[in-house]
């Protein structure tokens, strides 16, 4: 899996990393049980601070996307692909609200937003950017 970090992005680096790992899970490049590099090794590979990788890993661990098993490693959680709980659905809806509010302010039509969402889902599933 190829990780591409945009240092000038407004999105924090740890979130860029976490988001790309989640996309890898979503498109099948990182199936449940797949190992990930240790924080130190991943940081060296990506030329970034180990604490940034660890922050991304803990973020993903909170979302039950990865498991950190002491003295064994980091793995895609066996239950990373699952039906969302009501709490998870509510969280995702809350996270979408400001994005959709901005789209409405920019006078994007509902049909255009739906096309954007469908295109984004397709790109994630196909592993495209």
From TrEMBL:
One function term, GO molecular function aspect: DNA binding
Keyword tags: Coiled coil, DNA-binding, Transcription, Transcription regulation
A Pfam family that the UniProt record links to this protein: GntR
Entries under PROSITE patterns matching the protein: HTH_GNTR
Xref: Gene3D superfamilies: Winged helix-like DNA-binding domain superfamily/Winged helix DNA-binding domain
Coiled coil regions in record: 82-123
HTH gntR-type domain ranges (all copies): 11-79
SMART domains: HTH_GNTR
Keyword check for Thylakoid: no
InterPro entries from the UniProt entry: Tscrpt_reg_HTH_GntR, WH-like_DNA-bd_sf, WH_DNA-bd_sf
Domain of life: Bacteria
Keyword Coiled coil found: yes
Record-linked CDD domains: WHTH_GntR
PANTHER family (alphabetical): GNTR-FAMILY TRANSCRIPTIONAL REGULATOR, HTH-TYPE TRANSCRIPTIONAL REPRESSOR YTRA
Protein name: GntR family transcriptional regulator
């Amino acid at each position: 899996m190829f990780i591409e970090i945009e240092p000038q992005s407004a999105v924090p680096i740890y979130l860029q990393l976490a988001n790309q790992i989640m996309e890898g899970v979503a498109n099948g490049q990182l199936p449940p049980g797949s190992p990930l590099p240790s924080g130190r090794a991943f940081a060296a590979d990506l030329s970034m601070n180990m604490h940034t990788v660890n922050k991304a890993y803990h973020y993903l661990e909170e979302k039950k996307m990865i498991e950190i098993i002491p003295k064994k490693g980091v793995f895609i959680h066996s239950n990373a692909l699952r039906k969302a709980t009501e709490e998870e659905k509510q969280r995702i809806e809350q996270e979408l609200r400001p994005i959709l509010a901005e789209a409405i302010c920019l006078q994007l039509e509902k049909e255009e937003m739906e096309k954007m969402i469908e295109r984004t889902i397709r790109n994630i599933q196909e592993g495209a950017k």
